[in-house]
Amino acid sequence: MNTLSAHFTRAIARRLAAERRAAAPPSLSAALAAHPAAAARLRFADALLQEGSPGILVGDFAKILRTSGIETGQKRLFAWMRENGFLLATHTAVHNIPSQRAIELGLFAVQQRAIRKPDGTRLLVHTPRVTAKGQMYFLARLQKEAQAPAGSGRPDPKDHKENQEHHGKDNEQ
After folding, report:
1. How far apart are alpha carbons 128 and 5 in whole angstroms?
2. What share of the chain is helix, strand, coil (3-state, %, to 5)?
3. What is the pLDDT of residues 149-173, one digit of tens each?
4. How far, rounded to the nearest angstrom, does the alpha carbon of residue 99 sit from its chain's CA centroid?
5. Where are the domains of the chain?
6. How far is CA 34 from the centre of its chain?
7. SS3 sequence, 12-61?
């Protein structure tokens, strides 16, 4: 009878172990193996969020936005950031430098480097870089703006020019 109860106990133990394995959530590595696209995104996010990374150039971020369905380029993204107060819009040495608010929010980092001009003088160049936090913030904000109804927000400058031309012709008659 001991062999029968031992055999019965092992069978129950195997059955319980199989039920636990079936009920347990899959491990992260098993889930990533089943979904290679998710694995690539996870590696990208890991690289993005690594400490010590100063961020990416605004032009490179514009390319990422294009792959996310936001139709913009480097020049339009710089203009949008200036219009919304994230970058300074002066035409001096501090043109396109992040505002104090944007730096305090952690959206930008500034890379500084000295270059030597052909005449021998040195020039300090500031390059704004979008941090990982800034990338997530701007992506969410631009996607939200893209989903907003067409009539909301700022008027299109093209419409303003067309209205001026139309009114100008009316005034001449």
Report:
1. 73
2. 55, 15, 30
3. 765 555 454 544 444 454 444 444 4
4. 19
5. 57-148
6. 26
7. HHHHHHHHHHHHCCCCHHHHHHHCHHHHHHHHHHHHHCCCCCCCEEHHHH
